[in-house]
């Protein structure tokens, strides 16, 4: 063991005196002392020949020696790196600088901001609320009692029961919270992420984004609703887009209607996006049900209102002709780079 300790002292003197002028010499030092077949590993192998009662003592010596060599290597490496950077002869100052990659907003954020901007011009304020919601604000207040069959269409992720807490299925819960704290006139849009227990495919996902709108005041009519949505479509897609309303059913509105626009991808001729009908549904709407107003102490005999809701993914799909809903959440840089020039 004493012989090995003498060898270590000798190697320490050699290492202390070692100097490297180039990165190649630094690499030679690493291979000689710290490599797989280097000196440190070879000396470590002598541990098996040390008596058991002295293994702890010898192990400490070997560990100190290894740290000594590693510190020397790191010192040599940093010294050569500084010298390489500081040598102006190795730098061609005439070369162009490194390009700075331009970032961009996510396409869903781009379209969301456009939607918000359009409705702001009509006097709508923006309201937001929690994504984790209680049963009352998400369902009960929206005229969806526990035994209502329409709940089956909004199967969601429950966090707890008794009391029930869940991931919200629509941003109507934000409308509920607005009506809870404000009195008419109310004119808000509610953008945000929502969740539903659906199979992930090119046309559906377990989470998506909505923008819902609510307008409550005296003498609000279905004509006000239609003109508001006509204006939105023309501002978002242009004046040449055709629009139609179809009767529908929603528990929180009566009467209710779904709004379609002529398919922007096939120009109304028929394709797989519009299911060969020439029309694509973009939102649901209707007059606020009197029960919803009464739930928040708003006199349904004095006030009326309209509400609507649209999926941001669907609007983005039509505007930028995105054929797979999953692309929005896959973080594929090739997809995201296509929107670099969009403001």
UniProtKB/TrEMBL annotation:
Which InterPro entries does this chain map to? aa-tRNA-synth_II, aa-tRNA-synth_II/BPL/LPL, Phe-tRNA-synth_IIc_asu, Phe-tRNA_ligase_II_N, Phe_tRNA_ligase_alpha1_bac, Phenylalanyl-tRNA_Synthase, tRNA-bd_arm
Q: Where in the cell is it found?
A: Cytoplasm
State the SUPFAM superfamilies in the record: Class II aaRS and biotin synthetases, tRNA-binding arm
Q: Which residues form the Aminoacyl-transfer RNA synthetases class-II family profile domain?
A: 111-338
Q: Which residues bind Mg(2+)?
A: 254
- Give the superkingdom in one word: Bacteria
Catalysed reactions, semicolon-separated: tRNA(Phe) + L-phenylalanine + ATP = L-phenylalanyl-tRNA(Phe) + AMP + diphosphate + H(+)
Q: What class of enzyme is it?
A: ligase
Q: What UniProt keywords apply to this chain's record, in alphabetical order?
A: Aminoacyl-tRNA synthetase, ATP-binding, Cytoplasm, Ligase, Magnesium, Metal-binding, Nucleotide-binding, Protein biosynthesis
Give the cofactor note: Binds 2 magnesium ions per tetramer.
Gene Ontology molecular-function annotations: phenylalanine-tRNA ligase activity
Q: How does it assemble?
A: Tetramer of two alpha and two beta subunits.
The text of the family note is: Belongs to the class-II aminoacyl-tRNA synthetase family. Phe-tRNA synthetase alpha subunit type 1 subfamily.
PANTHER family reported for this sequence? PHENYLALANINE--TRNA LIGASE, MITOCHONDRIAL, PHENYLALANYL-TRNA SYNTHETASE
State the name under which the record lists this protein: Phenylalanine--tRNA ligase alpha subunit
From the UniProt record, report the name of the gene that encodes this protein.
pheS
């Amino acid at each position: 063991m004493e012989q090995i300790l003498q060898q270590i002292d000798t190697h320490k003197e050699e290492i202390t005196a070692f100097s490297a002028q180039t990165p190649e010499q630094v690499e030679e030092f690493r291979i000689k002392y710290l490599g797989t077949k280097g000196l440190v590993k070879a000396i470590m192998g002598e541990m098996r020949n040390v008596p058991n009662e002295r293994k702890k003592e010898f192990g400490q010596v070997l560990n100190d020696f290894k740290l000594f060599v590693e510190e020397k290597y790191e010192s040599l490496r940093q010294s050569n790196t500084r010298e390489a950077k500081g040598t102006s002869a190795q730098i061609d100052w005439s070369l162009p600088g490194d390009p700075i990659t331009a970032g961009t907003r996510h396409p869903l954020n781009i379209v969301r901001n456009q939607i918000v901007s359009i409705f702001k011009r009509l006097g709508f304020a923006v309201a937001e609320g929690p994504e984790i919601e209680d049963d009352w604000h998400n369902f009960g207040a929206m005229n969806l009692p526990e035994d209502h069959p329409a709940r089956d269409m909004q199967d969601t992720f429950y966090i707890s029961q008794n009391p029930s807490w869940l991931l919200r299925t629509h941003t109507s819960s934000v409308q509920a919270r607005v009506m809870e704290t404000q009195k008419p006139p109310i004119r808000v849009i509610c953008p945000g992420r929502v969740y539903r227990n659906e199979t992930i495919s090119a046309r559906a996902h377990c989470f998506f984004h909505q923008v819902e709108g609510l307008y409550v005041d005296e003498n609000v009519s279905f004509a006000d609703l239609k003109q508001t949505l006509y204006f939105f479509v023309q501002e978002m897609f242009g004046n040449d887009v055709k629009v139609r309303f179809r009767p529908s059913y929603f528990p929180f509105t009566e009467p209710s209607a779904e709004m379609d626009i002529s398919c922007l991808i096939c120009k109304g001729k028929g394709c797989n996006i519009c299911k060969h009908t020439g029309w694509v549904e973009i939102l649901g709407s209707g007059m606020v049900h009197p029960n919803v107003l009464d739930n928040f102490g708003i006199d349904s005999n004095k006030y009326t209102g309209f509400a609507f809701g649209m999926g941001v993914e669907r609007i983005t799909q039509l505007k930028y002709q995105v054929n797979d809903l999953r692309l929005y959440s896959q973080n594929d840089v090739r997809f995201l780079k296509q929107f670099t020039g969009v403001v």
